[in-house]
């Protein structure tokens, strides 16, 4: 019944919005940056969690560059550090985390900022949408109040102006009858609707970077597509950069311009989406692609998986972290391969890159 | 208890005024009947097992068996227990709880004034304990494991490990004996001025409030920290860029309050009976003191009435907590479909 509303909203096409940013140059949103301008540069980012003398190295020297207005998909298994590295950018990690290295956002260093400095940037520069919209909204607050709170966090607006703006944000994310939804509670909305509210909250501070942390994972496939299309549309209309954190390669291939594959807390392959998927080099990416279930596959056969277990982040072995699970690993892999640009615009970290045009199942298909 | 799905039709107002809410109240009150009935039967039975009769107590150890027997006949104590219970029940249903065996006063008259004293004591204790516990817990949860949190933890654990009669005696020693700022015993009714009334209530209320304060502080602080560290909506709130106090008060506290309400509701019910010792120490003419005296004189009629009152208060307090829940938590709409 709720999904029905989503379909209606999604089917509406690009409707006229009352959102001020969409009409005229004196919009509330920052001007569109010139193409190729670096918005975020992450260098040798490391995150370590310490508890009772035990250290878990969640992010181990992550480096990437994100241009303004682009969508970067960060892909990896659970525990690959994709979510932790992004939360580190917003200072949203628990106090057990130690963040080192560098992350420059529009020229400002984020690592080492005080909580007060970071707070001023949260929502205003970088905003985040989380995985589970059911748990991410306060269950005891009306959704309108939650959006208004985000609006007033960074803009000195009175109650009525903030309310007007919140309703605009809700219509911007294609919430049907936003004035009415305003007074409802999260449990009265469908999952897709809740995620729209989350996006409205994220947009309230007019961020230049939106991090969608598995933002569509908890949704059904139809709703997922609608939310992704909304994100892409907002990215273009508002000139926002988007970091799409996901374990779903299909999602990355369909929507992102750039793809960064993470493994054991570091980047292992990074390229524009079309380059990466046409010329997979890193055996890990290849294995991930091979693990996508296909409809054409014979029924009742085992699903292909990436063999082996992800490494123990509290005791990382020397050398390439993927080597124990890699078919092409040899003694050279005892030396950690750096993530370097081997082909124009294509970086990977491997001594034995996969040659071009293999069959998609080659890496792991023999396990089924 | 299904969450209502008819989105958009109602603004969630005070749910207890809507008809499903009233139905809930009715249902819960009906459920209370067997509970109170059971309590009264159990009390009556147990009281009958206690050796020594009111007649014996009234007449003293010198009385002859014949005298005792005569008084028992007069008081109707010779009749079978079942019949006496049914008599009592018949009266209780019509609001007549019988006459005290000792003073021959109607029990309802005795209870009225006593209940007011105990009620005031309990309300004061709750106002004090909650009024102090909420800010303490917020301050402690704001910076967990820092100085303020640690101090409040030590205070709380101390308070929880000291029995309230020990605390009562300590309070008397310090404030009444050494500093001589507050009266040690006695009760000044409200009719003689609020100030004097509160002065006479200050120490007993503090003796009851302090352990409660410690308990609520610990409970709320723990729940707040759990919310702050474990709940995704807190991360959302922080990601908006709002300040830490706003996250704590508007988001975490709002959700922690529900657990607190349940605990307070449960305490409120049991506490009216828990004032017995403190009333005894401070010589407050409350219902606890009345019951203790009645037990000593084997005045079963009065004991019976006190116990039933305790049961009714406990049931009502729990109902109140549940209703408060429904009013405050938009997810709970009792009985709607």
TrEMBL record, chain A:
The keyword Cell membrane applies. Its main location: membrane. Transmembrane segments: none annotated. One of its GO terms (molecular function) is ATP binding. It holds the Pfam family ABC_tran. The keyword Membrane applies. Residues 42-289 form the ABC transporter domain. It is a peripheral membrane protein. InterPro entries: AAA+_ATPase, ABC_Ni/Peptide_Import, ABC_transporter-like_ATP-bd, ABC_transporter-like_CS, Oligopep_ABC_C, P-loop_NTPase. It is found in: Cell membrane. SMART domains: AAA. Keywords: ATP-binding, Cell membrane, Membrane, Nucleotide-binding, Transport. Residues 1-27 are annotated as: Disordered. Belongs to the ABC transporter superfamily. PANTHER family: DIPEPTIDE TRANSPORT ATP-BINDING PROTEIN DPPD, OLIGOPEPTIDE TRANSPORT ATP-BINDING PROTEIN APPD. This is ABC transporter ATP-binding protein.
């Amino acid at each position: 019944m709720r999904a029905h509303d989503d379909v209606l909203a999604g089917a509406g096409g690009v409707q006229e919005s009352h959102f001020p940013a969409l009409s005229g140059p004196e919009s509330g949103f920052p001007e569109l940056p010139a193409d190729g301008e670096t918005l975020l540069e992450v260098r040798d980012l490391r995150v370590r969690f310490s508890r009772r003398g035990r250290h878990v190295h969640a992010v181990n020297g992550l480096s990437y560059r994100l241009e303004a207005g682009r969508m970067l998909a960060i892909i990896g298994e659970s525990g690959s550090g994709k979510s932790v590295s992004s939360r580190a950018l917003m200072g949203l990690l628990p106090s057990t985390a130690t963040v080192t290295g560098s992350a420059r956002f529009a020229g400002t260093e984020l690592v080492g900022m005080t909580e007060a400095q970071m707070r001023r940037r949260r929502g205003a520069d970088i905003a985040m949408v989380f995985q589970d919209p059911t748990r991410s909204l306060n269950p005891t607050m009306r959704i309108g109040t939650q959006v208004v709170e985000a609006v007033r966090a960074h803009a000195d607006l009175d109650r009525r102006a903030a309310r007007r703006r919140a309703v605009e944000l809700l219509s911007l994310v294609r919430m049907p009858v936003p004035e009415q939804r305003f007074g409802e509670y999260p449990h009265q909305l469908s999952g897709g609707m809740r995620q729209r509210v989350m996006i409205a909250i994220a947009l309230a501070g007019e961020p230049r970077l939106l991090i969608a942390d598995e933002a569509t994972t908890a949704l059904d496939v139809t709703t997922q597509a609608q939310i992704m299309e909304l994100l892409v549309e907002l990215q273009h209309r508002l000139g926002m950069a988007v970091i799409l954190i996901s374990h779903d390669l299909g999602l990355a291939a369909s929507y992102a311009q750039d793809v960064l594959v993470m493994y054991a807390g570091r980047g292992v392959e990074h390229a524009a989406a079309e380059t990466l998927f046409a010329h997979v080099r890193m055996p890990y990416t290849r294995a991930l692609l091979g693990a996508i279930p296909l409809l054409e596959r014979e029924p009742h056969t085992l699903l292909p998986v990436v063999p082996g277990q992800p490494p123990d982040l509290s005791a990382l072995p020397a050398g390439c972290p993927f080597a124990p699970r890699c078919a092409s690993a040899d003694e050279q892999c005892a030396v950690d391969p750096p993530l370097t640009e081997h082909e124009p615009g294509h970086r990977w970290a491997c001594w034995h890159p996969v040659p071009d045009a293999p069959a998609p199942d080659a890496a792991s298909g023999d396990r089924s | 208890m299904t969450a209502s799905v008819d989105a958009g039709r109602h603004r969630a107002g005070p749910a207890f005024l809507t008809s499903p809410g009233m139905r809930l109240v009715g249902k819960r009150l009906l459920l209370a009947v067997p509970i109170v009935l059971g309590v009264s039967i159990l009390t009556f039975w147990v009281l009958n097992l206690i050796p020594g009769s009111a007649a014996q107590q009234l007449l003293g150890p010198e009385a002859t068996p014949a005298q005792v027997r005569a008084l028992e006949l007069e008081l109707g104590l010779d009749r079978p227990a079942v019949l006496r219970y049914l008599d009592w029940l018949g009266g209780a249903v019509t609001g007549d709880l019988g006459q005290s065996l000792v003073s021959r006063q109607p029990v309802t008259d005795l209870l009225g004034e006593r209940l007011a004293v105990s009620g005031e004591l309990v309300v004061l204790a709750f106002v004090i304990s909650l009024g102090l516990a909420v800010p303490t817990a917020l301050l402690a949860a704001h910076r967990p494991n820092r100085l303020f949190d640690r101090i409040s933890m030590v205070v709380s654990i101390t308070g929880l490990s000291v029995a309230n009669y020990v605390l009562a005696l300590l309070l008397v020693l310090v404030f009444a004996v050494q500093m001589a700022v507050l009266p040690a015993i006695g009760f000044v009714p409200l009719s003689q001025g609020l100030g004097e009334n509160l002065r006479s209530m200050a120490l007993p209320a503090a003796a009851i409030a302090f352990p409660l304060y410690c308990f609520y502080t610990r409970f709320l602080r723990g729940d707040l920290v759990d919310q702050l560290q474990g709940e995704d909506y807190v991360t959302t709130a922080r990601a908006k860029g709002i300040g830490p106090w706003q996250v704590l008060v508007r988001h975490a506290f709002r959700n922690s309050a529900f657990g607190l309400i349940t605990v307070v509701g449960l305490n409120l019910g049991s506490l009216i009976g828990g004032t017995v010792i403190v009333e005894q120490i401070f010589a407050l003419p409350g219902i606890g003191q009345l019951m203790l005296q009645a037990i000593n004189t084997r005045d079963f009629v009065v004991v019976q009435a006190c116990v039933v009152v305790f049961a009714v208060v406990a049931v009502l307090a729990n109902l109140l907590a549940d209703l408060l829940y429904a009013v405050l938590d938009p997810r709970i709409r009792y009985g709607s479909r």
